[in-house]
Amino acid sequence: MGRGYGLFRRPPLLHVAVDEGVGPAVLMIHGIASSSVTFENVIPLLTGAHRVIAIDLLGFGGSPSPEDAEYTIEEHVAALARTISSLRLREPFVLVGHSMGSLIAARYAAARPRLLRRLVLVSPPIYLPPGAMGNRVDRTTMDLYLRAYEYLRTNKEFTIRTAAGLARLSPIKNLLDVSEQNWRAFVLSLQNSIESQTSVSDLAAVEVPVVVVYGSLDPLLTPSGLRVIEKLRGVEVHRVDGGDHVIRPRMARVIATAIGRA
Question: Is residue 239 part of a domain?
Fold first, then answer.
């Protein structure tokens, strides 16, 4: 487990940004440099028949940013697990993760199968070590993604400026936030939870049904990563033509349908 959360310290409680509706619980976690606003197009489709809970991840949105956190996948999951436990949900729930949140959700689901009814992963950035890939094109593509992420986390001014420009173009207000306030959480989450990940083995260990939803125009996904998870047992994949990394209304409807079938 990460350095900050050993045997003598409890992980922090995360900010529960949304808790609306009545019915079977659906719990949502967003991706890096974002917040619960990620799901603003999904939530209204569900609250008529579900209790919808959206949680801000460690270091982002309204959640705490511990000084000694390394933002590993273990630390993100530990904080999420304590927060979910505090909600005292009585029945198994659907867990939805977007982007980095899908990697955290997969690790949580692998360790706690009895708590879930279904796992829904939206736009999961599945990256494999380039050296582990046999196809030269896949190897080169994966290496380019990892180099791009390294550039982003080692060029602070460029990254903050670029993120601000993308945020202005986003159809969802406050969707993307990379700033001085969350820079450490952004850099370490990118390095320790996205670039260094075990999502394929986590998903292989998940015992509940898994639904993957992604957009055909998503620039953050690699075809090789998607091909790997498509072959895993119990994984159902839905491609949204014309969709990108943002959960727009069309993708929101696909996600709501996947949740409603649980």
Answer: yes
Would you state the torsion angle of the CA atoms of residues 150, 153, 157, 159, taken in this order, to the nearest 10 degrees?
80
DSSP-derived secondary structure letter, 49: T
pTM reported for the whole predicted model:
0.94
Please check whether residue 66 lies inside any domain of the structure.
yes
What is the number of structural domains in the chain? 1
Q: Is 205 among the domain residues?
A: yes
Q: Provide the residue range defining the domain that includes 96.
A: 16-260
| Residue spans of beta strands (DSSP E) within the chain | 16-20, 25-29, 51-55, 93-98, 116-122, 210-215, 235-240
Strand partners, 19: 53
d(CA 111, CA 106): 9
The pair of structure tokens assigned to 17 is 């940004």
Assign residue 88 the CATH number of its domain. 3.40.50.1820
pLDDT tens by residue, the chain, 262 residues:
444 454 447 899 999 999 999 999 999 999 999 999 999 999 999 999 999 999 999 999 999 999 999 999 999 999 999 999 999 999 999 999 999 999 999 999 999 989 999 999 999 999 988 777 778 888 898 999 999 999 999 999 999 999 999 999 999 999 999 999 999 999 999 999 999 999 999 999 999 999 999 999 999 999 899 999 999 999 999 999 999 999 999 999 999 999 986 5
Q: How far apart are CA 202 and CA 254, in angstroms?
A: 24
Identify whether the C-beta of residue 94 lies closer than 8 Å to the C-beta of residue 187: no
Q: Look at residue 179 and tell me if it is in a domain.
A: yes
